[in-house]
Amino acid sequence: MKMEKIYNKLVRDNIPEIIRKNGGEPYTRILTDKEYKEELEKKLYEEYNEVCNTSSKEERIEELADMLEIISALAIIEGSSLEEVIECAKQKSIKRGAFNKKIYLEKVIED
Question: pLDDT averaged over the chain?
């Protein structure tokens, strides 16, 4: 008896072939540019949740790597690259600082 699982989500490029090698029959379609961007954004949120809910260092590193892959794809959509995003992050770190000092801003009193 064949079993059907519904996923309806963006997957990595090699997943259909891996499914075939494991005896499955994947049903896929190519997304439009608009759908692709929306699905990448959903995937980024999914991976963010996985990062927050992992219990081991190894799992967390893998999930962070997944986020990095998605950020790279989103950068390409914007006509940029992961390297440019990283350079932008470095410049922001120089200008505004990083998050290394664990500073938590509670409030500001202004005149």
Answer: 96
